[in-house]
Design brief:
Blueprint lengths: L1 E3 L3 H9 L12 E4 L4 E4 L5 E4 L1 E5 L5 E6 L10 H12 L4 H8 L3 H29 L12 H19 L5 H8 L11 H4 L2
Parallel strand pairs: 1-6
Antiparallel strand pairs: 2-5, 3-4, 5-6
Helix pairs in contact: 2-3, 2-4, 2-5, 2-6, 3-4, 4-5, 5-6
The structure holds zinc ion.
The site of zinc ion has 8 residues, from loops.
């Protein structure tokens, strides 16, 4: 898996031109399988089909994940993030689903995944936040582990915007987690032990 830009046409151009390198061995990535692209959901919600690539060096295949997407999730991270943020302030699942225009079952999957990783996510993004801004005030507890995880993401994104370059909170969450914010395997926090 490799994090790339958010413009599908530009990613395709760079891939075909051999400008993308393998995250494993730095070999050249070549197109593999069908093109990625925008897919419309039943209610007009924009979804993405990820582009696959294969390394000419180690022969590994890598999914190219835009910084606005999460691995194995077809909705944009800004949509997923809006749902997580709403849940964090106590909005119920059905209202969250109606708000973001996604089936309740899909929203439930996102909320469950973050809930099961909440403490690890909180620690990961809190460490990132203090790495970016050692003078940061202590994070205020929100009362739930889910809320604390979302708060840590927001604080880390704010610190990154001030220290590095302006970044949308959920795009930051996507790239800072290697696209694995809602994955159960290969999370950066799992790898970190
Ligand atoms: Zn490789």
């Amino acid at each position: 898996m490799k994090i790339v830009g958010t413009e599908a046409a530009e990613v395709e151009r760079a891939l075909v031109a051999g400008e993308l390198s393998c995250p494993g061995c730095a070999g050249v990535l070549r197109p593999w399988g069908q093109r990625g692209g925008v897919v419309r959901g039943g209610n007009g919600v924009e979804r993405r089909r990820p582009r696959r690539s294969r390394c000419v060096g180690c022969q590994d295949t890598h999914v190219l994940i835009g910084a606005d997407c999460l691995l194995r999730r077809r909705d944009l991270v800004v949509v997923i993030g809006a749902a997580l943020a709403a849940k964090a302030i106590g909005v119920g699942q059905r209202r969250v689903a109606a708000m973001v225009g996604v089936p309740v079952s899909t929203v439930r999957g996102w909320l469950r995944r973050l809930a099961s990783n909440a403490e690890a996510v909180r620690v990961w993004f809190t460490v990132l936040a203090y790495g970016l801004d050692p003078m940061l005030a202590p994070l205020a507890p929100t009362g739930t582990s889910f809320g604390d995880a979302v708060e840590a993401i927001a604080v880390a994104a704010r610190a990154a915007s001030l220290r590095l370059a302006p970044v949308l909170p959920w795009s930051f969450a996507a790239s800072a987690s290697g696209g694995r914010l809602l994955s159960n395997t290969g999370c950066p926090w799992a790898a970190a032990g």
